[in-house]
Amino acid sequence: MARTLAEKVWEDHVVRRAEGEPDLLFIDLHLLHEVTSPQAFDGLRMNGRPVRRLDLTIATEDHNTPTLDIDKPIADPVSRTQLETLRKNCAEFGVRLHPLGDVEQGVVHVVGPQLGLTQPGMTVVCGDSHTSTHGAFGALAFGIGTSQVEHVLATQTLPLAPFKTMAITVDGELPGGVTAKDLILAIIARIGTGGGQGYVIEYRGSAIEKLSMEARMTICNMSIEAGARAGMIAPDRTTFDYLQGRPHAPQGEDWDAAVAYWKTLRTDEDAVFDHEVVIDAASLSPFVTWGTNPGQGAPLSASVPDPAGFEDPSDRLAAEKALEYMALEPGTPLREVKVDTVFVGSCTNGRIEDLRSAASVVKGRRIADGVRMLVVPGSVRVALQAVEEGLDKVFKEAGAEWRHAGCSMCLGMNPDQLAPGERSASTSNRNFEGRQGKGGRTHLVSPQVAAATAVTGRLSSPADLPGAAVLEA
Amino acid sequence: MEAFTTHTGRAVPLRRSNADTDQIIPAHWLKKVTRNGFEDGLFEAWRKDPEFVLNRPERQGATVLVAGPDFGTGSSREHAVWALQNYGFKAVISSRFADIFRGNSLKNGLLTVILPQETVEELWQLTEADPTIEITVDLQAREVRAEGITAPFELDDNARWRLLNGLDDISLTLQNEADIAAYEAERPSYKPQTLQV
User: Fold this and answer.
1) What's the gap in Å between the CA of A94 and the closest CA on chain B?
2) What does the record give as the reaction this protein catalyses (chain A) (predicted)?
3) Is position B194 within any domain?
4) A410 labelled binding-site residue
5) Fewer CB within 10 Å of terminal CB in chain A, N or C?
6) How many Å lie between the alpha carbon of A461 and the closest alpha carbon of chain B?
7) ipTM at complex level
């Protein structure tokens, strides 16, 4: 029977299938961080259970880590305790850990791929919803709760409810200045924050095939913002080239065997998806959010919508509450919205291509007076690469702050937060109320829009900048 | 896990859609390393408003949350479930839950019940008009009952069986040790290992 990519990966991991029970799936890679693991390790201890597969488990520190003064003790005692708890747990159970200060430390979803641990056809889990990122490799990757973290630590498996399949086909050429971030924000605005619920989404089509691995990660990363179980992209030459030579990529005969298998990981031509969405890449433009969930977005060229225009009463009420929280008036052109803070980073847009993209916009320019711009690389490796390319200097010369790696202002568990009433243009993934700091207001944007916004102080794209045509030529 | 059979209690009508996990429990609470003590963080920002429904005197001691669609969207933090339970909620009713939140709730014995939005609206109107009205969430019968309302809900047999008996998933899975070992023995050698290279 013809199968989709997601169904193939699922089938290859079924450990046990029995009538009336959810399938029990084997987990190829389990990523851990400090926030969602302490209670899981406690559970193991209480029951006297070991970690079943230390060789398929790896931990890093990211959510709580400061991005300044990382050589000093962490000021917040609660954050410090949480990091120390992870270190203690990893030492006690024997889990490989990359702590703050280590060259492999960084946001967990940046670290896995750059080590070559994320590969096509794998099942990847982590106690973090943005685990969907790893689907960019044609892996079935999804976020889990702490009870499931404990379950995977103890058994290397998970009982999982069946999923539905959705194809989002993006054909054509993305116009210049339109990035993967704009594309995924437009997709979420179209299908809604619940639109992907119960589905594994496969992104396909010529526009997707042309994307780099990092751009594909940005797309899959935000699948969860559409409510999807996971997002996937079929592996291809781009995927294989990205992986070859990475520390944990297969070598020699194993490489050949792996590639032979990876090439089978494509949706069969006559396979049927439960739901299909088609998007014309050429119709897209830079996209930003105006509200308090990632589905409340619009093209940068549009204006703040009028809630009265929403047909669904629940959507209308949500829009009213969002505009009240965001302190925005219907009809205001989005390009006139002033920001105080620009954040470039996160598991969505904290990779080297994102930093290059933002740097190319601020290069030779100054960020606007009164605007604070934070650039937070997704990992230490990304930071080192950026320094080698001189990107840190470009940012600093433009007036931005160059920070150490971590989740940082994406969710403000460390000191990088918005003050009440402050407004950000952020390359992260969630514009929820208070997400970046109590009372903070977030507009989700691409790295290019973030950088242009830093220069003008208002939501902007690089094309809005003086001399843009010259620079882009 | 605590077993869930049936529960009757007063309700909190929460007329908000997309009550995301950052609203249910803000990130700074996630620094705790325990499963308890999250009750004061539940809806922390919204509770700053004295008129917020959870702050109303007539809602004190209520145990059934009746929420708008897309409840629990966002992060995978199980802390959101613990916060609701620590506060005293036994069940949450909504027309749509985020997948990860729902999975987490059922693993902790917090029953999340999916009902059509029209029924949610009826429950809102009923419990807004009379805060003393009790709602019964009956997992045995897979039914929600309140004055004049009887609404069946779906929950798959396996999840229901585990909840009714308060069964621990890990113990159940470990009964299939032979299956896991057999699968492991067949895994291809090119699959990556995390051990330092």
Assistant:
1) 11
2) (2R,3S)-3-isopropylmalate = (2S)-2-isopropylmalate
3) no
4) yes
5) C
6) 27
7) 0.95
